[in-house]
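Example record

Each entry pairs one chain with its bound ligand, oxa(dethia)-CoA.
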Amino acid sequence: MYQSKIAGIGYYVPKNVYTNHDLTRFMDTSDEWIQERTGIQERRFADRYAETTTTMAIEAAKIAIERAKTTAQDIDFIVFATLSPDYYFPGCGVLLQREMGMHEIGALDVRNQCSGFVYALSVADQFIKTGMYKNILVVGSEKHSFAMDFETRSRNMSVIFGDGAGAVVLQPTQEKGKGILSTHLHSDGADAEILAMYYPGAHANKWMKDKPPFPDQELGGLFLTTEQLESGAALPYMDGPAVFKKAIVKFPEVIKEALSTHSFTEQDIDLLIPHQANFRISQYVQKLLGLDDNQVFNNIQKYGNTTAASVPIALCEAWEAGRIKDGNLICLAAFGSGFTWASALIRW
Ligand code: UT7
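Structure tokens for the complex follow.
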């Protein structure tokens, strides 16, 4: 059985910075409210036309591949996590394969929202462990801005999310005790609809606010009327406080599960990289686990919540800043829509 290690890592964020003050041009909000409730100061939004979830992923992937001292042609599998794909189908994995000129390798898209990257890493880890693949590209990328509503009615969501991408290359390692020690994946669909985008799903009309979209049709009809679109019927929905309450329970739970699997304690963690959902959530988790400030990495202040991209972007920034050293114990943890939550323990 092989062990997998992160051989290369990269991230990309668009150059367009939107501060909290900038958002007050579009909706009734304030820098004070956003900073106090979320810790966010600014976020990046992709170019509306030139950049997509796939193009951002490619930029991050190029860096990860170069740092892994390999080439796009040597990648033998792709796992792509996103909730904001370029198309409803096919997924972004094949688009990345095409644009990077890779061989006809397998490309898998993961639909696990905020915990998508940790799920994707876990999938890749299993393929490396069994010896099936030797160079897997794992990506988390999001272009949230394309589907976000910048009117006051959606301000609880639109001030939180940002765009960006992160990527790693996983390879087998011979070094004993190094690399991904374990991953831990969970879900509970009981509250699937409280953080969701129903349209254009096959069951959308059950949940969309406003009237059911296709009352007069016997069959088919995926398109909304202009009135329905304008009323915001198809916008993403989030019950923020309910998500918050669940997150502060499941984050510590899945981190402790990872630690106890290896008989580690909280004090053994050199760096915790939590999914950047809300700075208050990170602080709560830090306090509950009794971690010092230097044991937790946060960058939500600069990028907001980039969903599947947030963990690899934070991991890469922490590594570039020298916060991750050879032999360190790194814990990745995420929670989000589904609900799904996950952790990974890595000996760097
Ligand atoms: O990535 C994983 C998934 N997502 C999350 O983990 C998000 C978890 N939830 C949260 O981070 C927080 O619930 C939010 C940041 C979304 C909201 O913060 P909150 O402290 O839970 O606020 P709230 O939704 O309870 O709203 C409090 C008030 C409301 O006004 P009233 O009814 O008290 O008059 C909202 O209308 O704040 C209002 N509000 C805003 N005011 C200014 C909501 N959004 C905004 C805004 N600016 N952007």
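The longest helix spans residues 240-261.
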